[in-house]
Design goal:
GO cellular component, one term (chain A): cytoplasm
Family (chain A): Belongs to the ubiquitin-activating E1 family. ULA1 subfamily.
Low-confidence stretches of chain B: 1-9
Number of helices of chain A: 23
Strand order of the largest sheet of chain B: 3-2-1-4-7-8-9-10
GO molecular function (chain A): NEDD8 activating enzyme activity
Distance between the termini of chain B: 84 Å
Mean pLDDT of chain B: 93
Distance between the termini of chain A: 61 Å
Order of helices and strands of chain B: HHHEHEHEHEHEEEEHHHHHEEEHEEHEE
Oligomer: heterodimer
Helix content of chain A: 40-55%
Shape of chain A: elongated
Radius of gyration of chain B: 25 Å
Largest interface: A-B, 90 and 85 residues
Mean pLDDT of chain A: 93
Organism (chain A): Parthenolecanium corni
Strand content of chain B: 15-25%
Protein name (chain A): NEDD8-activating enzyme E1 regulatory subunit
Largest sheet of chain A: 8 strands, mixed
Largest sheet of chain B: 8 strands, mixed
Strand order of the largest sheet of chain A: 3-2-1-4-5-6-9-10
Shape of chain B: globular
Bound molecules: zinc ion
């Protein structure tokens, strides 16, 4: 290699522009974003803030639906409108300013009401990967929710109302391979090492090593040795705290003494002591994964099963046969000499390859049985699936429109949360009641200054009616109802901007199938600046 | 149509919140049209940083009724900013962030007057900072945060040991990293300041030099080796590393690959090399939006008293669902920055045999995290500079002191030291106390 002429890969403009986010979701995540089409219903301040944070990172295309005209009120909460837009189509006006954000993104608008679109073109929403609705009426929510539930298109509905915000995800099923947990699970397989690992671990004779060499042995070797010793002494593996402490003592006693007779504080021994608890449980199949592998969609494959479930089924077969999830093949850093670390890494890596090959073979059989093409799932897909098999996730939400029916299926959940005086469920009830109020009176409670007092009475009636439908005996404080009437339906820009950032990220999660979306409702309170999640 | 007319309609949403009374409002809140007048005309806000957070902060302030806004940023626009810094376009690359951001906001939000300053925060003095009602920080530099924090504390006025509230300028601080972020409010002299909670900023992850040199295991170890050892030795371009120069990154990438190959280490990529050399922090538009929105909501609450403010620290994370956690960071009574000036600040040291360089290491350690402290001893007869690295001639003159013990330098129990550092605009005066005296 000629060292004077660096042959570094040429970076494209796009790679440079998106560098800071590619480090989070990778080129494949970016590809998923760039090929997606998102629909926003209603160009509110909140709506455009959501679009802003998915246009900047490079969504493929977006469509804005809004049948309204720009009013003076809209300008003060919406950054993507200005004075010159008053009286013009709101959808058109925001689309023009939004498109300036990123020349790589396509955008269009439909200057029509949602209701008309659903009536005239029932399959309209089929072409979207995610639909986001803001400030929808009760009727629109019901229409949209049932339509998209049927089309299996993910839906986010959200609202920014005074100091309160709410977002709700409706999705039939969402599967995640790359959930990016803060602590990646590494299964060391020290309780039952596979043959290559066993041979390697037993190739060390720690007692004969000099102090300086001993300091360079990876902690897994040390932990394995004392685990074996513990087993010899007690005939089983340590389970209780006391037993684990005994193992730790064994390791401590194994530390060599320095010239002064004091135990040398070797980092690898310390690492072994620290890892005792984790290593003893890390080989177990996590509860979440056990649940996933016994899921109906995993057990009963059909010709319509998705790649995720076909791979999950193959994984299930593997786990039943081997008793373990596939080895991850990624080794965290640890104190060790390079050659030991690299060797150990190779051993885990080779096993990971063998494991994923085994799962891949099963996947091939399944594809054949299901009459699906052999290349619909690649070997690389299976490798990724196996690598992240400790942290696979599924999210399934309920259908929103079901909840708006006479007797909501999840009423007992709502009732029990309402019984807790500190729960934010009352905000949910009030926001739902406001949707009712709007349907009935065609404006928000307290919209006009001299309507605040009378509207409190009317909103209270809506709240009581909804509470009785849900079957709750709870009482929502008058003060709180008054506060919502005080808001008069206004949107505060900084509240919308907070919520907009949150929801944009939820859209990105849905599109990339990375990270874990909300399940399924969040309430944001800008007064206390906290977020509560409900699983409705 | 008069300008007045446009404004009163523009903020009809804010008017409802600010002019209507309600039973759950803050007890100090007296709704009136005056509040919006105050926000728009009298409440001068300083935004520090016109990057990812800064762009959002300016937009949010403008749409929450603030009109008298200053913004300071010393950076120019780079292509990699465009995935989140939404006031900038491709044609703006190379221009000062503060100026482009201010121009954009002033054009989009009529009536809003953002004044840009393309310079460092250190270029301004007390008189400049004293003119603001609120300061909001959207920085990635901890040193700059600490500097502005100390600056705002230095503006506090005490009358007979009682803090004069009119001298207090609240500091709202936001920070993000990937999908994580935090926002906090600091009432200088009253609530925890940046310095009170220094432990929230753990020093950057560094790899031990012996690992880098002799037992590399990770691709990062190989890159650090090239960066720290091979570059100074071979000096390929006869200058120090410029992370924005592709030929520099290219060279480091090549050499890191070679070193990794020697040790059979996998995973050196161009992107990783860039990340390690430039210490890149991942960033997305959405997290910046969330944190900046929190900061401006709090500024709005402070300016209007419409409801109680964040008390006083919020963390945010949306990797798994959406998660927030708020808590009260605690003020340290003996904080070296925010405890009142009349309170003597003691520094406890183990013994007077401590060498001056050990003392400097101690100041640079986890507890005080100073960067390159200069130390002057205030002896009764006269002040004497013990060490100062900033000025080469003084450095040379005082270098020999580094190996001397504090005792040899005549520092005894009760000696006052004056410490200067880039983390603060004013010198720190501390009184030394030894737990043990060597005879
Ligand atoms: Zn402090």
């Amino acid at each position: 290699m000629d060292s004077n002429s660096p042959k570094s890969p040429e970076q494209s403009e796009k790679t440079k522009k998106y560098d800071r986010q590619l480090r989070l979701w990778g080129d494949h995540g970016q590809f998923a974003l760039e090929t997606a089409h998102v629909c926003l219903i209603n160009a509110t301040g909140l709506g455009t803030e959501i679009l802003k944070s998915i246009i900047l990172p490079g969504i493929g295309s977006f469509t804005v639906i809004d049948g309204g005209k720009v009013r003076e009120d809209d300008i003060s909460v919406n950054f993507f409108l200005d004075e010159n837009d008053i009286g013009k189509s709101k959808a058109e006006a925001v689309t023009r300013f939004l498109l300036e954000l990123n020349p790589d993104v396509h955008g269009d608008f439909i200057d029509e009401s949602l209701q008309r679109i659903i009536e005239n073109n029932p399959s309209f929403f089929n072409s979207f990967n995610v639909v986001v609705g803001t400030a929808l009426s009760e009727l629109e929510i019901i229409l949209l929710s049932s339509k998209l539930w049927e089309l299996k298109v993910p839906l986010l509905i959200c609202r920014s109302y005074g100091f309160i915000g709410m977002a709700r995800l409706q999705i039939k099923e969402h599967t995640i391979v790359e959930s990016h947990p803060d602590n990646q699970n590494t299964s060391y397989r020290l309780l039952n090492p596979f043959p290559e690992l066993k041979t390697y671990l037993e190739s060390f004779d720690l007692d004969s090593l000099e102090l300086k060499d001993l300091a360079h042995v990876p902690f897994v070797v040390i932990l394995y040795k004392y685990l074996q010793e513990y087993r010899k002494l007690f005939g089983r593996i340590p389970k209780t705290y006391k037993e684990k402490e005994t193992l730790r003592d064994l390791i401590r006693k194994g530390m060599k003494k320095d010239e002064n007779g004091l135990p040398s504080a070797e980092e690898n021994f310390e690492e072994a002591i620290k890892a005792v608890n984790y290593v003893l449980t890390s080989d177990e199949v996590p509860k979440e994964i056990v649940k996933l592998l016994t899921d109906d969609n995993c057990v009963n494959l059909t010709t319509k099963s998705t790649s995720f479930w076909i791979m999950a089924n193959a994984l299930k077969y593997f786990v039943e046969k081997e008793g373990y999830l596939p080895v991850r093949g990624v080794l965290p850093d640890m104190t060790a000499e390079t050659k030991h670390y690299v060797k150990l890494q190779q051993i885990y890596r080779s096993q990971a390859l063998r494991d994923s090959e085994s799962v891949y073979r099963r996947v091939q059989q399944l594809l054949q049985q299901l009459n699906q093409s052999a290349d619909s799932i690649s070997e690389a897909d299976v490798k990724e699936f196996c690598k992240f098999s400790h942290d696979l996730r599924i999210v399934r939400s309920s259908c929103i429109s079901h909840e708006y029916l006479e007797k909501p299926f999840n009423s007992s959940y709502i009732v029990s949360n309402l019984d807790d005086p500190d729960s934010s469920m009352e905000y949910y009830v009030i926001l739902r009641s406001i949707e009712r109020f709007y349907s009935e009176y065609k404006e928000y409670p307290g919209n006009l200054d001299d309507h605040v007092e009378p509207d409190i009475v009317k909103l209270k009636a809506c709240v009581s009616k909804l509470l009785s439908e849900i079957g709750s005996n709870s009482i929502i404080k008058d003060d709180l109802i008054h506060e919502f009437c005080r808001y008069g339906g206004v949107e505060l820009h900084s509240v919308s901007s907070f919520l907009g950032g949150c929801i944009a990220q939820e859209v990105i999660k849905l599109l990339t199938h990375q990270f874990i979306p909300i399940n399924n409702t969040i309430i944001y309170n800008a007064v206390s600046s906290d977020i509560v999640t409900f699983c409705l | 149509m008069s300008a007045e007319g446009i404004r009163s309609r523009q903020f009809s949403c804010l008017r409802k919140i600010l002019e209507r009374a309600g039973p759950v409002c803050h007890p100090d809140f007296e709704p009136s049209a005056e509040i919006l007048n105050f926000i728009s005309n009298d409440c001068k806000v300083l935004v520090i940083g016109a990057g990812g957070l800064g762009c959002e902060l300016l937009k949010n302030l403008g749409l929450m009724g603030f009109r008298d806004i200053h913004v300071i940023d010393m950076d120019t626009i780079d292509l990699s900013n465009l995935n989140r810094q939404f006031l900038f376009r491709r044609k703006d690359i190379g221009k000062p962030k503060a100026e482009v951001a201010a121009e954009f906001i002033n054009k989009r939000i009529s009536g809003c007057n953002v004044k840009p300053h393309f310079c460092k925060i250190q270029d301004f003095d007390e008189d400049f900072y004293r003119q603001f009602s609120i300061v909001i920080c959207g920085l990635d530099s901890i040193i700059a945060r600490r500097w502005i924090n100390a600056m705002l504390v230095s503006l506090l006025v005490y009358e007979e040991d009682i803090l004069d509230q009119t001298s207090l300028i609240p500091l709202i601080d936001g920070g993000t990293e990937g999908f994580k972020g935090n926002a906090r409010i600091i009432l200088p002299g009253m609530t925890a300041c940046i310095e009170c909670t220094l432990d929230l900023f753990p020093p950057q992850v560094t790899y031990p030099l012996c690992t880098i040199a002799s037992t590399p295991r990770l691709p990062e170890h190989c890159i650090e080796y090239v960066k720290l050892l091979q570059w100074p030795k071979e000096n390929p371009f006869e200058c120090s590393i410029d992370g924005d120069d592709p030929s520099h990154i290219g060279w480091i990438y090549e050499k890191s690959l070679e070193r990794a190959a020697c040790f059979s280490i996998r995973g050196v990529t161009y992107r990783l090399v860039q990340g390690v050399v430039k210490n890149i922090i991942p960033a997305v538009a959405s997290t910046n939006a969330v944190i900046a929105a929190t900061c401006v909501t709090e500024a709005f609450k402070l300016a209007s008293s419409c409801c109680s403010t964040l008390n006083n620290y919020m963390v945010f994370n949306n990797v798994d669902g959406v998660y927030t956690y708020t808590y009260e960071a605690e003020k340290k009574d003996d904080c070296f920055v925010c405890s009142p000036f009349f309170r003597v600040k003691y520094m406890d040291l183990p013994h007077d045999g401590m060498k001056l360089n050990e003392f400097i290491e101690f100041l640079s350690g986890l507890q005080y995290q100073m960067k390159n402290p200069g130390i002057v001893a205030a002896f009764a007869e006269r002040n004497r500079t013990l060490y100062m690295s900033g000025v080469p001639s003084i450095e040379e003159m005082t270098r020999d002191n580094l190996k001397k013990s504090l005792k040899e330098l005549n520092i005894i129990n009760g000696t006052k030291l004056i410490v200067t550092d880039v983390t603060r605009p004013t010198p720190l005066e501390i009184v030394i106390r030894f737990s043990e005296i060597n005879n």
